[in-house]
Amino acid sequence: MAVELSSKMQEFVKEVFPAFIGTSRKDGSVEQVPVWFEFADGSFWINGGTNRGWFKHLQRDPRITLLLVDPKQMFRWAQVQGRMVNWAEDPGGEHINHLSHRYFGRDYQNPRTGRIKIEIEPLRVTGSIDGWG
Amino acid sequence: MAGVKPQPVLSPQVQRLAALRILMVVATKRADGSVLLNPVWFELADGYIWVNSNTRRSWPKHLQRDKDMTLLLMDPEEPDRYAQIRGRLAEVIPDPRHEFIDRLARRYTGKQFRELEPGEERITLKIEPLAATGDLI
Question: With a CB-CB cutoff of 8 Å, which residues 74-133 of chain A face chain B?
Answer without folding.
Answer: 74, 77, 79, 81
